[in-house]
Amino acid sequence: MSISTSAEVYYEEAEEFLSKGDLVQACEKYYKAAEEAIKLLVIENNLKEITKEAEEYGWDSKTLNDAVTELSYKLGDNIIDMWASAVTLFTARKFMDKDLIENYKKDIKTLIEEAKQRFSIKVLK
Question: Angle 23-44/48-57 helices, nearest 10 degrees?
C-alpha cells in the first residue's frame, strides 16, 4: 500500500487543473505542492530553528525561504532552483502559458520525489 504525501495530493490536483486548462489554479496547486515538500524536508532534516520559526510565525514566505536556505546547506543548491520554480509559478501565475508551466512543474515533481524518498526512508527505519 502506498500513502500519498500532501505534496503529492496537491501535485495531482495541479495536474487536473492543468489538463482542464485552468492554468492559474494549476500554478497555485504546484506551488502548494512544493511548499508541502519543503515542510517534509524540514521535518526529515530535523531543522529545529525552522520548526520553531514556523510555530511562532506560521509558514510565511520568510520562514519558507529560510527553510530552503537551510536545506540547501544539507541537500545542495538545486533545492534553491526547485523552490525558485515554485515561486515563479505562484507569482507569475496569471501570465503563464501551458508550455512554461510544463517546464517549471518538472522541478516541482523532482522536489516532491526527493522529499518523499527521504521521508519514506526515515519512516521505514
Answer: 130
Range of the domain at 10: 6-124
CATH of the domain at 113: 1.20.120.330
User: What stretch of H or E contains 105?
Assistant: helix 98-124
* 69 part of a folded domain: yes
Phi, psi at 12, each rounded to 5°: -65, -40
Q: Which helix (H) or strand (E) is 96 found in, with range?
A: none
The amino acid present at 11, given as its one-letter code, is Y
| Measured CA distances, 57 to 47, 68, 83, 98 (Å) | 15, 16, 20, 34
CB 27 within 8 A of CB 101: yes
pLDDT in tens, 24-74: 999 999 999 999 999 999 999 999 999 999 999 999 999 999 999 999 999
Instruction: Indicate the number of domains in the chain.
Output: 1
Residue 1 lies in a domain: no
